[in-house]
Write a structure and sequence with these properties.
GO terms for molecular function: pyridoxal phosphate binding; transaminase activity. Belongs to the class-III pyridoxal-phosphate-dependent aminotransferase family. This protein is an alpha/beta fold and 462 residues long. Helices cover 36% and strands 15% of the residues. The protein is built from 13 helices and 17 strands. A hairpin with a 2-residue loop joins strand 6 and strand 7. The longest helix has 22 residues. The chain binds 4'-deoxy-4'-aminopyridoxal-5'-phosphate.
Length: 462
C-alpha cells in the first residue's frame, strides 16, 4: 500500500490549501497528527496515546464499538435524505423528546450546532415576531452569519463587526443586547446567594430597554453551563428570574445544550435542569456529542412554536439533516449513555476530579477556582488570590508540559485564557482523573522552576 503521509507533508498541504484562520491545536510545536482513538485516549501518528481531557464530541468514547457498528450497518444499506419515510429519524426523535420535559416534543434534525442555533433563532423570530435577542457576554453559539451576531466571544475581539452602542455593551446591531456573564468568581457580583438576582437584573434591563421603545423581545439565548466563557454555571435564581422577564416581554428562552447535553453535568441529563430550579426552555438545541462525531444536531421545541414557523408558509428542507446513518449513530449514543450509566459515572468521576483539584487549591495560590459539575469542570489559574490576576502564561506553560511530557490534551478557555476546561469523553475514569491531577502537580513544579522566564514564553493556542 502507499506510504502514509508524514506530518510535514500534511502541514505543507494545509498551508497551500487551507485558510490561515482555520487553526490547529498546539501549533507552536507543529500540531499533533491524530490517527486513532479509543475510549478517553487519542493516538498520534507514532502510536503514542494521549489522555483526552477535552473532547466533548466523542461522548461515549473515541471509537466506541456500538456507535461504529451502528454506522457501518446502516451505511452499508442506505443513506439518503428525509423526504422518504425511515424508522431511524422518527425513533430518534421520540427518544430525544422522551429525554426532555413537556411540552418539548417537536424535533428537527440538522448537521451542526450552528445550524441548530440558526434554526432556533428563526423559530423564535417566527413565533414572537421580534428579532431582538438577549445574549450573554463571551457566549459562543456558532459560526454562521446569524449566529455570529449572538456570539459575543467572536465579535468582542473581531474587526468584522462594526460595533454600535447598545445599552451598556457594543453588539453588531440594536437587535442584539449583550448582558454580563453571571460569573461569581471574577465578575462584579460574587455573593453566590444574591448573584442570581443581581445578574438577572441586567436581563430585566435589556427587556425594559426594548419595551421603552415599544418593542418586544424575541429570544434569550443561553447555555445552562457556559463553556467558552470558562465553565460558568448560572447562579441560583439567575435562569428563573431572567426567563420570567424575557417571557413577560414576549420572548422565548433558547437553551443551547450543544456542549452540555446528554448527561455531561452528571446531576441532570441537560444543563438547564442543573440545580434546584428547572425552568423548561421553549427551544433546546443539541449537537456535538449527539452523533459521537457524526454530523448530527437537532432543535427541539413545542408544537405551538413549530406551528408559528409553519404559519410563515416556508417549507423546511435540510439535505443531510436526520439521514439514516447519522440517526443510527444518535440512537447508539443515547443507548450507550443509558446502558453504561454514563450520567451517573460523570457525576462520580467529576466529583472525584473536582475534590482533587480543590485539595490542590488549598495548597497553592495558582489554583484560584475549581467549579462545574460532572465532567464539565473549570480550573481557573491566577497569580494572586486577592487581585485574581489571570495566570495566562502559566496556564499555557502547564498545558504545554502536560502535552509534551505527560501526553495529556487539555483545553484553555475563559476571557483571559486562564481556565482549563475539562470536558472529556464520558468514559473518563477515576484513574484518568488521578493521573491528570498528578501530572498537573508535576507541571506546576516545573512551572516554579522556570521562575519569571515563563512570562516571556509564546502562548500555546489550544
Ligand atoms: N453552541 C455551543 C455552545 C458551542 O460550543 C458550539 C461549538 N463550539 C456551537 C454551538 C456550534 O456548533 P458547531 O461547531 O457544530 O456548529
Amino acid at each position: 500500500s502507499a506510504k502514509p503521509m508524514t506530518r510535514e507533508e500534511v502541514l505543507e498541504l494545509r498551508q497551500k490549501h487551507f485558510m490561515k484562520s482555520v487553526s490547529i491545536s498546539y501549533a507552536n510545536s507543529g500540531g499533533l497528527m491524530i490517527m486513532g482513538g479509543t475510549g478517553s485516549r487519542l493516538i498520534d501518528d507514532e502510536g503514542t496515546p494521549y489522555l483526552d481531557t477535552r473532547n466533548n464530541v466523542a461522548h461515549v468514547g473515541h471509537g466506541n464499538s456500538e456507535v461504529v457498528k451502528a454506522i457501518q450497518t446502516q451505511v452499508s444499506v442506505l443513506n439518503t435524505n428525509t423526504r422518504y419515510l425511515h424508522p431511524n429519524a422518527v425513533e430518534l426523535a421520540k427518544k430525544l423528546a422522551d429525554k426532555l420535559p413537556d411540552p418539548l416534543e417537536v424535533v428537527v434534525f440538522v448537521n451542526s450546532g450552528s445550524e441548530a442555533n440558526d434554526l432556533a433563532l428563526r423559530l423564535a423570530r417566527a413565533h414572537t415576531g421580534s428579532k431582538n435577542t438577549i445574549v450573554v457576554e463571551r457566549a459562543y453559539h456558532g459560526h454562521t452569519l446569524s449566529i455570529l451576531e449572538v456570539s459575543p466571544y467572536k465579535y468582542e475581539y473581531s474587526k468584522e463587526f462594526k460595533m454600535v452602542p447598545n445599552g451598556q455593551y457594543g453588539t453588531p446591531g440594536k437587535h442584539i443586547y449583550k448582558v454580563p456573564c453571571p460569573d461569581i468568581y471574577r465578575g462584579n457580583y460574587r455573593n453566590p446567594d444574591t448573584a442570581g438576582e443581581v445578574y438577572s437584573a441586567y436581563v430585566k434591563d435589556a427587556c425594559k430597554h426594548y419595551q421603552k421603545t415599544g418593542e418586544t423581545v424575541g429570544a434569550f439565548f443561553i447555555e445552562g453551563g457556559m463553556s467558552v466563557a470558562g465553565v460558568i454555571l448560572p447562579p441560583t435564581n439567575y435562569l428563573r428570574r431572567s426567563v420570567e422577564a424575557v417571557r413577560a416581554a414576549g420572548g422565548v428562552y433558547i437553551a443551547d445544550e450543544v456542549q452540555t447535553g446528554f448527561g455531561r453535568l452528571g446531576s441532570s441529563y441537560w444543563a438547564f435542569q442543573h440545580g434546584a430550579e428547572e425552568v423548561v426552555p421553549d427551544i433546546v438545541t443539541v449537537g456535538k456529542p449527539f452523533g459521537n462525531g457524526m454530523p448530527l444536531a437537532a432543535v427541539i421545541t413545542t408544537r405551538e412554536i413549530a406551528d408559528s414557523f409553519q404559519a410563515m408558509g416556508v417549507e423546511y428542507f435540510n439535505t443531510f439533516g436526520g439521514n439514516p446513518v447519522c440517526c443510527a449513530a444518535g440512537l447508539a449514543v443515547l443507548d450507550v449513555v443509558d446502558k453504561k450509566g454514563l450520567q451517573k459515572h460523570a457525576l462520580e468521576v467529576g466529583a472525584y476530579l473536582k475534590s482533587l483539584f480543590l485539595e490542590l487549591k488549598e495548597e497553592t495560590e495558582l489554583v484560584g477556582d475549581v467549579r462545574g459539575s460532572g465532567l464539565f469542570i473549570g480550573i481557573e489559574l491566577v497569580r494572586d488570590s486577592k487581585t485574581l490576576e489571570p495566570a495566562t502564561a502559566e496556564t499555557s506553560f502547564i498545558c504545554t508540559q502536560l502535552k509534551d511530557k505527560y501526553k495529556i490534551l487539555t483545553s484553555i478557555d475563559g476571557a483571559d485564557d486562564n481556565v482549563i476546561v475539562v470536558k472529556p469523553p464520558m468514559v473518563f475514569s477515576k484513574i484518568d482523573a488521578a493521573f491528570f491531577v498528578n501530572c498537573f502537580k508535576r507541571a506546576m513544579k516545573e512551572l516554579e522552576a522556570m521562575g519569571d522566564e515563563v512570562l516571556q514564553m509564546k502562548k500555546t493556542p489550544t
